[in-house]
Amino acid sequence: MIPFAGNYTRQQWSQGIRLAMYPTGRNLVFRLLGLGLILFLVGVIVYNAYQGEQVSWTRLARPVVSMVLLGAWVSTPYIRAWRTAAQAWRGTGQLGLSGVVTDQGIVSNASSSGQVDRWDRVLRAIVRDDIVVLVEANGMATILPRTFFPSEDHWQRFRQLVQLSVVPPR
Question: What tens digit of pLDDT does each residue of 43-69 get?
């Protein structure tokens, strides 16, 4: 059993939320392509305006609507992460987590019934030098910074257990 306890700083909480919610891989590539398309459309509109070309509103409406819809799609995960990170600090202004890590999973005070968050429910583990974020199948994320563990030995054992226990989906 590996104990952990602590209060999040705003930086730790925000970093964990960003790691859990920001797009990665193919999703990130498609969002960057969407951003590139928006910039291309803006460039075409600005270029035509500088050339003195009269553009009718009916001809301009389709690209503008497309840019707005594409912009909403591109920005949604970033806005959602920002809102989630900010929302947690509106209440008491202090967020804490304590519990133990076992071979079966994590038992923490975040679980109202004291149930074990089992390793087989974890879809993705994001392991960094100073923080580990575990994203479960239900979309919930467990954010565990290095400062929550009593010693470097506990932190290293936890990281090894995460790497052994979390099997990424194929």
Answer: 988 888 888 877 777 778 888 898 999
Total tally of structural domains belonging to the chain: 2
Task: Tell which of 62, 87, 112 closes a domain.
Answer: 87
The DSSP secondary-structure symbol of 61 reads: H
Which domain, by its residues, includes 142? 2-8+93-165
